[in-house]
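Appendix B, Record 12. Input sequence as logged:
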Amino acid sequence: MKDLTTGSEGKLIFQFAAPMLLGNIFQQLFNVVDSVIVGNFVGKEALAAVGASFPVIFVLISLIIGLVMGTTVVIAQYFGAKDFEKVKRAIDTMYIYTFIGSIILTVVGIILSEPLLRMLKLPEELLPQAVQYLHIFLGGMVLMFGYNGTSAALRGLGDSKTPLYFLIIATVLNIILDILLVAVFRLGIAGAAYATVLSNGVAFLLAAVYLNKTHRFFNIGFTGMKFDSEIFRHSFRIGFPNSLQQSFVALSGLALMGIVNKFGTNVIAAFSVASRLDAIATVPAMSFAQAISAFVGQNIGANKQNRIKAGLSSTLKMMTYVTVVTTLFIVLTGKYMISLFTSDPDVIRLGAQYLTIVSLFYIFFTLMFIYSGVMRGAGDSMIPMLITFISLWVIRIPFAWIMSGKIGVTGIWWAIPAGWLVGLILAYIYYKTGNWKKKAVVKPEEEFLV
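Logged structural output:
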């Protein structure tokens, strides 16, 4: 556990974000390793099938992800206020609703996966493999939510290191299992799915055993856990807009995939690979946004609102440097990284084109996420949700649909930074109003400057 309410703001945020950054990179490596192994040992059709599956998975899990994010904020604010009994009850409540939700999503997802893929007009030759991957992945949903819920709770307590240790173990295991099941035993796309499920299961099992024995706030099991309706109400108030936001992101991913699918297997494969690398490149922004959310939450809970502006300023400076370096790296090496996944020259060309266009505008994404992170840490998740809706559904998807009809697939690539720019403008304007500071679970006793 880490107290973020005393000490140098920038140093604390960096120290808290660094393990999360590594953890999020390892989390992305789950998807990247699957794609690299599948692309090289099964083929570009299987690579495209894996990529086409992820927007469907994201749609199905987005609601629970949002609620967990809400509970993380609640935990951070109670921990900052030193109300440890409510911290424990918040963690128990999170486990109960995520367990029930994951069971429901598994059943619904298995039933709807094939109709969703058909609705998106996925090419017929890719459909059987995509459905097979989805069914196996969804079968391990309980394990995935168990691990990610545990990590979210620990982050709310200021502990970003413990989840990293378990994730490193899981990622190494995933690589080993991918090689064994796909490359050695030739199980194809199913082997990649089994590797991911088993790796998530091991991470959750290790976390449960360790935390039950060593941590006073955790009781991971089938007995002794208590559901607190008031805490769930707070989590729902903060988390439901996050859930809607995650749903908007997920559904926009489905819509964008539907536009991409019209251009055939090569474009689908290129988009799948490039978006995996794109996800890794944006991990620093997402990690520091999570860090500043925890920082804001704890300092509001401790009634130290004057530290928030200094923390934000330090975070913006750090992330500007990181984003510039990331952009330069992607522009210079994008083509070579795409070639790690496939040897098909057309797929490599299209994927490199995507990365070159999109990476030039990472700074928009970074700043948008940092400002939104401050709002969420204060308990204001409604406005970030609305900003996400506008940037995706008013800007990105219409822009991609119209421009892809006029200039081809590059119109889809240009639509992505267009949405980021609008989102950044809206997030900055709302941050400057200061209205987000009024949404805290633990009410501040004094005003603070934005």
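DSSP finds 15 helices and no strands in the chain.
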